[in-house]
Structures are given as C-alpha cells and as structure tokens.
Task: inverse folding
C-alpha cells in the first residue's frame, strides 16, 4: 500500500483548509531554511550583516525580504535571491520607508511578496524593463482588502512621498509596489492614470 502515499499527499495538498495537509506541506520558513544550505545562498548571511550595520536587519523577516517573486514557481527559479553586492546600498532607503510605514500601521512587513529580481525573472514576472526590482530598490507587498488601507497609504504618499522620493504602485487593490527612486504613482497599466492615488504622474514600476 506504500505506493499510494504520494497520491494521498497530493490529494491532501489540494484539499482546501485541510489541517493535515497544512502540517505536511513545507512552510515558507521551512523552504527558506532549506535554501540557506544551497550554494546560491552564500551571500545571505553577509547581506543581513550589511543591513544590521545600517540598523535595518529585521525590518522585514529574512524569509520575506529575500523572496524573489510571486511567480517563482511558474518561472522555474528559486523562491529566494540575494542581490549582487554592488546593489546592496540601493535597498537601504526603501527599508527605512517600510519601517516608518509599519510603525504607522500602514504595512505588515511580513507580507512582502517580491524583492530583488534579476532581468530574466523580472521579464517572466511581467515587470517593466525599467523595474527597480532589478536594481534592488523595490519591494512588493500584499495588503488586507480594505478601502481604508488605500486611503491612508495614499495620504501618506501625498504628504511624505516627495521628501522620501517614494514611488507607490498598485498592481491591484491588495498588491502594491514601493521604491525610493522618485516621487510618483501608477496603476495596473504602469501609468499614473490608473493609480489608486491621485497626484503627480509617474513612470513605470
């Protein structure tokens, strides 16, 4: 009867809300720990040490901070990635913004969905050719579904965005993009016209 085990596990994985399936399937933390043992994760500890030296390690939990893209499975790449060392400074101002947004209750840093992406993954994920993800300056987050979240986030962008050079993009009402490459906003078609905020036109994400 052992030959039935893989089939049983597959069925459990498809069962919505099944507690046994949830226990059997690896969590993101489990996958992160496994990834840390791979050769591609060599720079992960050095990257965190670099952030720690700037007082920013832990702003976003490591398994979330190093998440490459929502579409990592479809694109056939690792779920986690470390940017090239020369790009590490680019993320510092964006992490400072994330820390402020979380302190103000506008963001849950643990819900980060995408950080650094190389050019090939960025194309596969549907990113702009000028995406700040490729330069390690951008982070994507999920938001709880609430019009109030959008209103408060847009208000923050209007008030604080110019000084922070804050770029705020909306893929949907619950999926956003943040970077610190210039004060601008955009929506689903990568233009300011479809942004859920009103204000200064911007460019692509």
Result:
């Amino acid at each position: 009867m052992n030959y039935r085990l893989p089939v049983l596990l597959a069925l459990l994985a498809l069962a919505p809300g099944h507690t046994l399936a949830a226990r059997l399937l690896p969590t993101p933390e489990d996958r992160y720990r496994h990834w840390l043992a791979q050769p591609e994760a060599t720079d992960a500890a050095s990257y965190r040490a670099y952030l720690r030296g700037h007082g920013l390690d832990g702003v976003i939990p490591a398994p979330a901070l190093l998440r490459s893209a929502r579409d990592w499975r479809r694109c056939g790449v690792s779920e986690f990635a470390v940017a090239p060392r020369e790009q590490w400074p680019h993320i510092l101002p964006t992490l400072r913004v994330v820390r402020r947004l979380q302190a103000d209750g506008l963001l849950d840093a643990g819900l980060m969905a995408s950080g650094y992406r190389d050019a090939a993954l960025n194309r596969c994920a549907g990113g702009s050719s000028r995406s700040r993800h490729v330069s390690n300056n951008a982070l994507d987050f999920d938001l709880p579904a609430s019009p109030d979240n959008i209103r408060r986030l847009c208000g923050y962008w209007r008030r604080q965005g110019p000084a922070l050079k804050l770029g705020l993009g909306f893929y949907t009402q619950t999926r956003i993009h943040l970077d610190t490459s210039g004060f601008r906003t955009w929506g689903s078609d990568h233009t300011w016209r479809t942004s859920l905020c009103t204000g200064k036109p911007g460019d692509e994400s």
